[in-house]
Amino acid sequence: MRGAKSAKWVAGAIVVALAATACGGGGSDSKANGAKQVVMELGEPQNGLIPSNTYESEGSEVMNALFTGLVRYDEKNETQLDMAESIETKDSKVWTIKLKDGYTFHNGEAVTAQSFADAWNYGANQDNTQETNPLYNKIEGYADLNPGQGKKPATDTMKGLKVVDEKTLEVTLTAPFSAFKTMLGFNAFYPLPKAFFKDPKSFETAPIGNGMFKMDGKFVRNQQIKTVKYDKHPDAGQVKIPGVTFKIYNNQDTAYRDLLGGRVDIMDTVPLSAMTTAAKDLGERYIQGTDSGVGYIGFPIKYNKVYAKPEIRKAISQAIDRKAITEKIFVNTRTPADDFINPLVPGYRSGACGAPCTFDPAAAKKAFDAAGGLPGNKMELGYNADGGHKDWIEAVAAQLEKNLGVDVTVKPFEQFQTILNDLGDKKYGGAFRLAWSMDYPHPENYLRPIFSEDAIEHGSNYSGYVNPEVEKLLDQGDTATTEDAAIKAYQQADDIILKDMPYIPVYFYKLNAGLSKNIKPGVRIDNMTQIDWTTVNPA
């Protein structure tokens, strides 16, 4: 993905969030009330446009336009009610969600409590192989829908979901989890209309949402996703544009030239090639800030035993000069990473990674050799070429060759979805570049979706990493009765993962976005790197 999105994998080298992730298809010239259709640069989404099957930044950006969730997140990362009228609990285990009136799907169907229950049951069922499946695992009855490989679920509903009436959904968790309300802003928890269940495949290219924008035609792969304003949305009066066309690019430099030429209006991933000139090129239309993303080098430790030793992985980490990469390659639009948890989230600790994240080539070489090095003294490092990663990945390769004496082959994948699919299918055995942006502002979200056992088959654990002690501590954090106790448990899990280092944290993202002359300054991009479309105003 280009930027890190509402939690998910990030495609781009430049991720976008507000302080507190070759040729594209044709744009649109349609107008309404004198305003022109807004065009936003986008990378190719990994999957079809189903909320529960979207776990990367490009697809999530589209979900954010087409759907309205129960909650949203403000500039301070605090959870605010959106479609929910109230979300209440007495024990953090049983939650009562009441919906506001006035919301309909784009086909006119009313959005009800059943719309949410049906969507969550579908996403949680292992037979449907949805990318966000593990995010439902805290709901009672999730295990019944996930009996394991080779077994069929005996039911298609979770007993923890009870539709009390048209506007009320009662959710019972397997154990208390104080952050459940915070989770509900992510697209995995969006509702689905009845039409989806009649033909899920057709829905992938022509989704019917409940958001501020509705589809205008179908999703055309490698070209565009065109939407128009949905006038019946309760907040439609706040939207000042007739619609958004997401124009898909495989090359960020091409997209940036189109931004300067007014053929693209919003780009949340200014390419490295423009980093030194963007402020001058764009003036007040250049947006900078902090971001929730973390950039990694990962290892398929379960599927390629050459990376099985943590000593090898930590030596590779210690041989990377993060300061040089963030200052010289990224021109200070990144900061060196020293934790798996981003500084914007409670639980982050400066220097948590310690020596393995501190550049020391002599110590790295000594440890690398003592651990036996790599077979043939070679390694491969894969990355997605559509995200602006070439320069920094090649810089890392050069550092490893110099500091460890290994021969590093850099392997570009044309699109982000390609490397994600190959990693998910266990087809790629080299080290790989990835980045993560939070789905919701909570330390658990930087750990469980990437490093838990559940996330191997149904989530984003592409390393295949498993540590029983980590599982235990994550559960302790989830069920803790106070925020302090929860954070302590998550930090202890974080410490173990840092020690094992299935991934190497390399840098924290910063916001680097741009607007065309067609858009007024003042566009808000949240910490999930998603556009607040009510702040987009034609110039």
Describe this structure in words.
The chain starts with 7 loop residues before the first strand and ends in a 24-residue tail after the last strand. The protein has 539 residues and is of the alpha+beta class. It is 26% helix and 19% strand. The strands form 5 sheets. Strands 1, 14, 15, 16, 17, 18, 19 and 20 form an 8-stranded mixed beta sheet that branches. Strands 4-13-12-11 form a 4-stranded mixed beta sheet, with helices on one face. It is built from 16 helices and 20 strands. It is globular, with a radius of gyration of 22 Å. The model is unreliable at 1-7 and 14-33 (pLDDT under 50). Helix 8 (310-318) packs antiparallel against helix 10 (361-370) and helix 15 packs antiparallel against helix 16.
Overall body shape = globular
Helix/strand structural class: alpha+beta
Tally of helical runs? 16
Multimeric status of the protein: single chain
What number is the mean pLDDT? 91
Distance between the termini: 29 Å
Helix content: 25-40%
For the sheet with most strands, the description reads: 8 strands, mixed
Poorly predicted runs of 5 or more residues:
1-7, 14-33
DSSP E strands, number: 20
Measured by DSSP, the beta-strand proportion falls in 15-25%
Rg, rounded, reads 22 Å
Keywords: Signal
Pfam families: SBP_bac_5
Signal peptide: 1-22
Domain Solute-binding protein family: 80-454
